[in-house]
Amino acid sequence: MEKPVTLPTKRFLLSAAAIAALSAAALPAQAQTTLTIESWRNDDLAVWQEKIIPVFEAAHPDIKVVFSPSAPTEYNSALSAKLDAGSGGDLVACRPFDASLALFEKGQLADLSALPGIENFGDVAKTAWSTDDGAKTFCVPMASVLHGFMYNKKAFADLGLEVPATEDEFFAVLDKIKADGTYIPLAMGTKDQWEAATMGYQNIGPNYWKGEEGRKALIAGTQKLTDADWVKPYEVLAKWADYMGDGYQAQTYPDSQNLFTLGRAAIYPTGSWEISPFKPQVDFEMGAFKPPVPKAGDTCYISDHPDIAMGLNAKSPNQEAAKTFLSWVASPEFATIYANEAPGFFPLIDAKVELTDPLAQEFVKWRSECTPTIRSTYQILSRGTPNLENETWAESANVMNKTETPAQAAEKLQKGLDSWYKPAK
């Protein structure tokens, strides 16, 4: 049996029992209250219904919780429309940085700065769901995700392949898989666009723009998307197209997932968030490797991205019950359940959490091997129109479809950013 991995802790402020007691004393739940959670994580429906919610309801029989997810690509617009119309759920899964900050600034997410349990998170963990000055926090941090590649260990064994560590080794592996013909080398499509950016550009890009150094330079205006370090990842992605199989331009995200889980593709560019939905679907052993570095000896960078938090609809009629639930989400008990029932979502709480899933352990060990960063488009740079995050989806897909060159895509992105973003001097 795999030995559990314990995530490091900085400090541990309140026990689960203390949080529960404090919540019960300060925030009494309303009798027979039903809370609805809005989320984009439709893959996690069973986990919430069968593993997470029953634990809370057992301790709070007067509160019923309903997990009601939307499709990931539709979530932002659907949530915004619901909140505008006053029909949103009581609790809201929060995407990091600008998208959720905009909801808070519109008065649609409540201020949770004084929520019992919020002090269990450090400033870094709260950054993605706090105002720019850090004075107010509007969502309870839940988890971060790590980008990388999953692979079919049986396919690698059958073809005598080693896990690649460099860009050249990566393409050598792809060449061998393609030449053999048994497996599609890369399970990746461009139909839904966001995959090309999130699991392509943001996956390998940090190794070229040097993580936080490049991301912060882009925000400061001392680097541009047309600089070599930002164009090079697109040049690499353009080469991926030769390994993505016939008809990849019409291939959706679910199509890519199925190709991998059915054993038809050898490598899946992705992130740790796929561990939980994939485990019950595959009949082969999955492995994971981090984004290959450009050349041997280079520092490796990984996207360790704050991914999900939970906020309170400011117009919810069930404020006290919702705060009781959120205080539980801020507890070590929730963090432990979530980390192990939805492996691949790594808690942000300042408490020790043991991970038992071996693939989650593989991903999380990269934190001690590489320098972390976050997705380049999520903070500040997607607040205007055109939205850099959404534009990066389209341009990444265009590059992989070979309808634009890497230089053309980069120029278009920078032109769009320049049209509204002026770096602070």
* Broad structural category: alpha/beta
**Poorly predicted parts:** 8-30
Integer tally of domains: 2
- The coarse silhouette is globular
The proportion of residues forming helix, as a percent range, comes to 40-55%
Report on the biggest sheet: 10 strands, mixed
In the CATH hierarchy, what is the architecture of the largest domain at level 2?
Answer: 3-Layer(aba) Sandwich
Which homologous superfamily in CATH is the superfamily of the largest domain?
Periplasmic binding protein-like II
Radius of gyration: 21 Å
CATH topology name of the largest domain, in short, is D-Maltodextrin-Binding Protein, domain 2
Top-tier CATH class of the largest domain:
Alpha Beta
First and last CA, distance: 55 Å
Q: Tell me the strand percentage band.
A: 15-25%
InterPro entries: Bact_solute-bd_prot1 (IPR050490), SBP (IPR006059), SBP_1_CS (IPR006061), TAT_signal (IPR006311)
GO biological process, one term: transmembrane transport
Subcellular location: Periplasm
Main location: periplasm
Can you describe this structure?
Helices cover 41% and strands 16% of the residues. The protein contains 18 helices and 12 strands. The strands form 2 sheets. Strands 2, 3, 4, 5, 6, 7, 8, 9, 10 and 12 form a 10-stranded mixed β-sheet that branches. Strands 1-11 form a two-stranded antiparallel sheet. Helix 2 (45-59) links the parallel strand 2 (33-39) and strand 3. The longest helix has 15 residues, at 45-59. It is globular, with a radius of gyration of 21 Å. The chain starts with a strand and ends in a 7-residue tail after the last helix. Residues 8-30 have low confidence and may be disordered.
